[in-house]
Amino acid sequence: MKRSYWLAAILPLAACATGPAPYTGVVATVVPMNETAPMNGEGDLADDPAIWVNTADTASSLILGTNKDEGVYVYALDGGELQELPVGQVNNVDLRGNIAVASNDSHNVISWFDINPETLTVSHVGNSPTGKEEPYGICAGMSGETYKAAVTYKDGTIQIWSATWETVDTLTPSLDRVVKLPSKLEGCVFDDANERLFVGEEAFGVWAVDLKDEAAEPVVVDTIAAANGLVEDVEGMSLWLGDDSTSGYLVVSAQAADRYVVYDRAPPFAPRGVFSIVDNEATGIGGVSHTDGLDITSAPLPGLPGGLLVVQDDANPVSEYNQNFKMVDWTAIAEALGLN
Ligand SMILES: [Ca+2]
Ligand SMILES: [Ca+2]
Ligand SMILES: [Ca+2]
Q: Which of 170, 210, 221, 250 is the most exposed place for a label (fewest CB within 10 A)?
């Protein structure tokens, strides 16, 4: 970033002629309806959340979130902190069913967690080695009865791991496949029904990887250069799932512009709009800047018939201070962008 500013300062005409055109469309605004308790300590701590929907009692669903210095924190839907699991320096977290995974670069492992639906507590099952330095992003998926975890790396590598419920207990997932993209990766999300993995290349854009066909080349979903609203860093992403496997939306965090870009879930992944999360004047809950990790559920929750978006907030209210996670009613986003 610093280098490009410098070039722009001395070569304004050349920079204008060759740089990507900025996004000139509308940026819709929504407000957070709630927020979690702040992280312990100062600095850039919070990164990525994951929503666990309690199907037996949706009011007691949980939000898991990473503290990059300490481990995984657990929150209730009212934002109150329930648990801290000090497993090490975890960057991202995701889940399917009652099993969550986190990318842990203290030990270069996947950390595995079990969510007990009776006691509503999260326990650390253990760690499985990735065999590679600094696992960075992680996301979870299901392929039939097989649990999947994709781990992303700063050198552009994606590892795709498989586990059965039995191999989760013994911490022996198998490495199915390695995919290589050009540069630094982080955010990712599985589209289970379509056996597709979306991955963010932080300085480039978003890719889709076909999980059914290992020979298929990754497909570009969008690029920063296309000026649909994406900017560096392309960060967290998640899916809002529609009623069938072709409907729904992909939401991607565009960090330096404090906003999110929304796409159709299905090819050709048409851009559907851009939104920011601004201050909620009525409740005093602040807006979201330096947008980072996020998770979405399309399951109805109490008072949230269209589901919930949870995002990391960098500044509460100033950068790297009291970082937490903000909650946004999906219906408000759908209305702001004119989505179905
Ligand atoms: Ca990042
Ligand atoms: Ca991040
Ligand atoms: Ca904020």
A: 170
